[in-house]
Amino acid sequence: MKQIYRLSALFFFVVAVGCSTVVPVRAPEGAAMTAQDAVGLWTLCDDENAAFDVRLSASGSAISNWSKGSVGARGEWGRWVIIDGSVVIDYDDGWRDIVFRNDRGWLRKKSYSPDMARDGPARSESSAVRTAGGLAAWVGVYEVAAAGSRTGTAAFVAIQSTGLAWNTADPGHIGSWWMAGDALRVRWANGWIDEFRQGALGFELRSWRPVATFDALGTPGEPAAHTARATRVE
Description:
Layout: H1 2-17, H2 35-38, E1 40-45, E2 51-56, E3 61-64, E4 76-83, E5 86-91, E6 96-101, E7 107-112, E8 124-127, E9 129-130, H3 133-136, E10 140-144, E11 155-159, E12 164-167, E13 174-180, E14 183-188, E15 193-199, E16 202-208, E17 226-232
Antiparallel strand pairs: 1-2, 1-9, 2-3, 3-4, 4-5, 5-6, 6-7, 7-8, 10-11, 10-17, 11-12, 12-13, 13-14, 14-15, 15-16, 16-17
């Protein structure tokens, strides 16, 4: 129970801090966004000032790890294009995010809910920044195949640059993550620990039960209870 309280406290702290931790970068005044500028991982903020990340691929797909919606850790899936020098992201749930440079050269993001006119005032506006390089290799949405999931059904895990993690498999849904050497480990509110590690065929996932023992450095003292392959959604 104390672990759940700690995770809940972390969640509310991150929500409270929100985009105050996002450091914007200024570009030359009047510089238009290009497709080359857009591709990669971005940290944005929602209309409640909570940070999330979105990966824009060269193929035009957009996958965000925003996990507060009805589909949870599955995030938002959509497409992006360049329109009038701005990056326009349209998600399957009807929301639109626009990343642009304002007249002072700062990168910004404005959002429109599904019921809003696209040519009117935005619902919210906040900073937009590139997600730090070291995090880009891990942050995103992962799909765990049904054969390897603890529930027997396909599951999704969202890893956010804030240090929070979300999943679609457990009642608690929320966790916190840290780097352990070349692996990423997540401690969930229900006590389970997952480890993501990059392998030759993609990402490998190992899971330990709440009763598993770990040393002071977080190294497990016993074999994992479950192993699976995980794919980061691109």
